[in-house]
Amino acid sequence: MKRLLAAALLVAPGLLLVTLGAVWLPYPPAAVVAAPHQGPSLAHPLGTDWFGRDLLARVMVGGRASWAVAALSVAAGGSLGVVLGLLAGFYRGFWGELLVRLSDGILAFPSVLLALILAAILGRGVVGVTLALTLFNLPYFLRLAHAGALELRTRDFVAATAALGAGLGRILFRHLLPNLASPLLVQTSFSLGTALLAEASLAYLGLGVQPPQPTWGRMLWEAQSWWGDSIWPAVFPGLVLVSAVLGLNLLGDFLRDFLDPRLRGLLSPSPLRPRGARTGPGA
Amino acid sequence: MLRFLLVRTAAMVATVLGVAMAVSFVLTVLPGDAARLVVGPEATLERYEAVRQALGLDRPWLPRFFSWLGAALHADLGTSLRYPSFSVAELLRRGIAVTFPLAALVALFSFFLGVGLGLVSAARLGRPSDLALSATAQLFLAIPEFWLGILLVTLFAVRLPWFPASGFPGWSSPQAWRHLVLPLAALALPRAAYFARLTRGVLADVLSTDFVRTARAKGLAEKTVLLRHALRNALVPLVAAFGLLFARLLAGALVVEQVFALPGLGKLAVEAAFGRDIPVLLGLAVLATATVVTVSTAADLAYALLDPRIRSP
Predict the structure, then answer these.
(1) CB distance B247–A274 less than 8 Å?
(2) What is the pTM of this model?
(3) Which of A111, A121, A227 is facing B251, going by the closest CB pair?
(4) Is the peptide bond before A212 cis (omega within 30 degrees of 0)?
(5) Sites in chain A below the pLDDT cut of 50
(6) Which of B245, B247, B269 has its CB closest to that of A116?
(7) Cα distances (angstroms) measured from residue A153 to each of A99, A159, A177
(8) How far apart are CA B306 and CA B301, in angstroms?
(9) CA–CA separation, A192 vs A107, rounded Å?
């Protein structure tokens, strides 16, 4: 429970500031409200940037795009991955195997390059970034759902349900899916953290939400030109981001141990679960 | 073992071909007109048509892909659209000269540092030093590499003038290494944290097994148990993770190069994407896939050697 509290406390600043920012902002985020390059003070808790804009207001607005893209891509990639994974695991066969191989293949392609290629086609905006992150979230969920369906499909309760005349949709979503809720929930927590990091990296490269709308990643990129004058614009957006990601990772750890201790080692915050690797005899 | 090698090599070639086809297909549905982009809006119709033909855009996708493939087999990946005087192969070669040594150094550093710290952690399981190490690793896993890069530059290049902040003078310069220290740190520290966490986790599992208890019971020194017995069994997942990590390492390098203005593949990729330089993007995609597949196959090979159970499926 201590870990849950820590996770909540870490995610809170990023989430609360952004939520609060939807209804109230200390200053207009694009307005010059004070002298530039100020450190934190009572009037400007996070200081001001190189133009004299209030950093707190900009951090509050900047998180919107980060959270929206992360949540949307995890939701889209997650649901698509679950559906495809359940189907592939339930039916097995050539197409199922092909699907699993393809989704593994996505992971072997550098994410940033994929996002850049999509940006060349769809433009630099949010659509390309969201699509790229959706593609990158999909394989993790597909793999989990596939493994789960493979294991559960031979169980008696599935055979019984089928014998009672349940259709495919009912078997997959009413009977298989609830049994996989724990690992999928844990993965969602980790994926959200990873997606936040990835969104920031792409925004740093200039992809995603375009100026004048701020985002955490782009704020850091802009701050880089002024790092000789003031360090605060390069610190605070990153700090909020790291705190949120750290909190989500801890939340994932907590959920994993709380919901199902057997998942330990199967799921890790970094998406690199060794294929076919055993963690030791009896693992 | 020979069969294993053959199957893996065939899979490698198939993957690279598949990616090349997919990327070239996706890039042909570009809404922007590549030929128009090269010649600019002022050009005459004759010049526009000439460039269009030079790019092969007047032909359908499949024949174009096959002629690209034929040329690619002779190491000819076409010409850049943005820099018509440079071949794609030459641009890639220049990028590789910076990015690959950096990636290799990061891979080595993070693996050995991470496994080392993981060993220390596992040897002190549950004690304060282990908890401190684990917490630090957890923290570094949540830090984006580019932000770590920014902080490192601010500290060690701007505030303390120990290292250059950006740019790369080329390998012939005696200063070259100093330019790579900060990018190396920015990329290697989060990955070392990952390996440390993984090593600690795997070792913790191995240390609770019967054969380790036997090794301890027969009076072996804890050091021997840890290094000879436990680590050896933990190596397989570690090497496997090493192979999988490489795609993400390349992705990370692309971003961190931007922080330090290194003239590597990252700079090339960003410029090519924003300029819709199709031949360069295609070349980059093929290069990245080939590299990742080669490294992960090498890692698979290494752990097949380490663990005979994997060789015979």
Answers:
(1) no
(2) 0.84
(3) A111
(4) yes
(5) 268-283
(6) B269
(7) 18, 8, 11
(8) 9
(9) 17
